[in-house]
Specification:
The protein has 302 residues and is mostly helical. 74% of the residues lie in helices and 0% in strands. α5 runs antiparallel to α6 and α5 runs parallel beside α7.
């Protein structure tokens, strides 16, 4: 995912104009990110299935990070394909759609588990409640990838010699439709995340920890999806929303950076969210068991 950010920056800021070889360097790095994303997603899911026993109550938004790189690589491939020759762009397009085809259903499956978890069990602990924003990222990334691939497919297929130009507008329309549905689902996830944070804040103060950085990626992806739809549909409302999200994201970055530096200086940032609660619960249960054992009479006739 970090490589995807670098590659998107190369394409968005048009660094290739300084040296055309940068395009092929970026394309090579993209292939490395594809291999890493596919291997990480498949291997981690296989390890969870074969080595661990999980329950619905243990499902969190962090599970989505297992498959999020697939959709990220798909959208990154669309960004790079726009500057490649037609034959290489066509190969990149096919691989990107395959990555999206693998990542989108897996993301939807985990989202079903996540929605089941939040509707069946209570919310996550207050010190990890910020992770409620994580599902917003992978869900929005599906829409970003579908919209980006649809726009590039419309251009690439028109220039190809495969006589598939009729599929270009169809794939663009499908990308816009998927992006719209993804945007609507993101609105629900955002509303739920805000509600969860406000609800937990009523009972206890939410301490700053490393999980607060999970705010940046989801809001950034939701902003990118909003900007893409605003450009394609020519809707002023979505474009204004995108500008608001950019300002909000900048404020979050500055806030998290300052608090992280301060926490690193004092050492408080290195605590694992919810670990302290688990340790306290373990100590409490242990002390309760000891108290019960001590209160048992030693004389059977007493």
């Amino acid at each position: 995912m970090a490589l995807g950010t670098v590659l998107t920056g190369i394409s968005e800021f048009q660094i290739y104009e300084m040296n055309h070889a940068v395009v092929y360097i970026a394309w090579s790095i993209w292939w490395i990110s594809v291999v890493l994303a596919a291997a990480a997603s498949v291997l981690l899911i296989c390890l969870i299935v074969s080595r661990e026993t999980r329950s619905i109550e243990s499902v969190t938004g962090a599970w989505l990070l297992l498959v999020a790189p697939l959709a990220v690589c798909a959208s990154t491939g669309a960004s790079i394909a726009d500057y490649l020759p037609t034959d290489l762009a066509y190969i990149t397009l096919i691989v990107s759609y395959a990555l999206l085809g693998a990542g989108a259903p897996l993301t939807c499956c985990i989202l079903v588990l996540y929605v089941t978890r939040i509707t069946t069990f209570k919310l996550p602990p207050h010190d990890a409640i910020v992770t409620s924003f994580i599902p917003l990222g992978p869900a929005g990334q599906i829409g970003v990838a579908a919209l980006s691939l649809g726009r590039i497919a419309n251009a690439v297929l028109l220039d190809s010699t495969l006589q598939l130009d009729i599929l270009g507008p169809t794939m663009l329309g499908a990308g816009v439709l998927i992006a719209l549905m993804s945007w609507g689902f993101c609105v629900f996830l955002l509303t739920h995340a805000v509600f969860s944070v406000v609800y937990q804040r009523r009972s206890a103060v939410i301490p700053f920890n490393i999980s607060w950085w999970s705010l940046t990626f989801p809001i950034g992806v939701f902003g990118s999806l909003t900007a893409g739809l605003g450009e394609v549909l020519d809707m002023r409302y979505l474009q204004v929303n995108f500008m608001v999200m950019v300002v909000l994201l900048l404020v979050l970055w500055m806030f998290n950076m300052v608090r992280t530096i301060a926490g690193a200086w004092t050492g408080s940032i290195f605590g694992i969210p919810s670990l302290a609660n688990k340790e306290d619960a373990t100590k409490e249960s242990t002390s309760s068991a000891v108290t019960i054992c001590d209160s048992r009479p030693t004389d059977r006739y007493v």
